[in-house]
Amino acid sequence: MILVTGGAGHLGANLVRRLIADGHGGDIRALYRPASDNRALDGLPIELVAGDLRDLESLRAAVRGCDLVYHCAAKISTLAGSEREIFDCNVVGTRHLLLAAREAGAKKVVVSGSFSAVGHHLSRPSDESVPFYPFALAMPYEWTKALVEMECWRAAAAGLETVVATSCAIMGPHDYKPSRMGETLIAYAHRKLPAYIPGGFEFVSARDIVEGHILAMEKGRSGEKYIISTRYVTLDELMQIFQEVTGTPKPRFRLPPPLMAGIAAVASPIMSRFFPRRTQRLTPGAIRLLRMGRRADHGKAERDLGFRPTSMEEAVTLAYADFLRRGLIERPRRSVAFVDPYPAPKGKPAVEAAPSAGQGPAKVNGAPEVQA
Ligand SMILES: NC(=O)c1ccc[n+]([C@@H]2O[C@H](COP(=O)([O-])OP(=O)(O)OC[C@H]3O[C@@H](n4cnc5c(N)ncnc54)[C@H](OP(=O)(O)O)[C@@H]3O)[C@@H](O)[C@H]2O)c1
Questions:
Q1: What is the mean pLDDT of residues 154-158?
Q2: What is the whole-number distance in angstroms between the Cα of residue 347 and the centre of ligand 1?
Q3: CA-proximal residue: ligand 1, atom 18 (nearest)
Q4: Which of these, 163, 152, 102, 151, lies nearest to 300 by C-alpha position?
Q5: Which domain holds residue 205?
């Protein structure tokens, strides 16, 4: 049995579909929270188990009988103000899960890491050897992802095979919530992105980060982390790719980053206070990350795991085509057919999430729902 935490999230939704395509359909169990948006899991031939990373007993029930565990769940936030929740979900939650996995006799755990937990070089791309620097300005989320790694090394030292697959900014299909990058693409296609700020970031295609997790499970050495990235993309390049994929002209204005950083520093706390449900695209943390221009070196994953990155153009095309087919982009300028990167195994029907199951517990096709 394979447990996937965060299966309704962007990475987890892709990973679960890849595992099904690889023929593991009947052996997958996904941890989910009943009150959340779980549309990504609707209609999939997998077992669901309700639980929360902060609740150790629910994880003990979830991991029972599982050999392999992919721990993709995390609370992601570039906003200030929910430090306790971020810490409890990410750090305490990972500690809980690794303990439960060890008790249950799981063979191996792959934990999704973050490039924000890798240190920064001004002169060259960072590899796994660059330590997180605790005295630089960092968001609570970034701190927790560094601490998550400590939990992983502790578990590895205690005898549980634990590997970290480090993700960069994910772009790709099956983005149900949708993610910050997904929302940016949707806004772009609706011509609601009048301007952007120059900068850049290391991106990873959803297909590549899934492949990185599978390879880490197959070949990764316990106590090691592997950076999985597709390539560094500047915002200028990203806008060009968006233009080519969507057929919508890119914004003409580039805003000075220091000015935007100042505006975001004032606006973000006000937005958080008065419009807590509204997504903030340019938070001070997000602007800082874009301005840093951090590049990743994924050479270790290439050498040790045989990882080969695909393309960001393909990742954006897949994301766009998937948003189109799910009706999230109205009056598109360009129509692109969705070609699922995780085709159904031979002789099995294609895996397809129902279009609008909404919130609440997902239904499982032909499999019992396990309540922890
Ligand atoms: N997205 C990126 O660009 C990026 C970059 C670097 C690293 N990563 C890492 O990659 C992993 C997956 O990210 P993602 O993009 O898939 O994030 P996501 O779309 O936000 O999904 C996160 C998943 O974790 C679940 N989760 C959060 N707190 C939980 C809790 N207390 N108990 C149980 N489940 C909980 C969420 O469920 P709910 O819906 O119930 O909250 C959701 O299903 C994370 O470890 C993240 O740190 C992502």
A1: 98
A2: 32
A3: 9
A4: 163
A5: 2-365
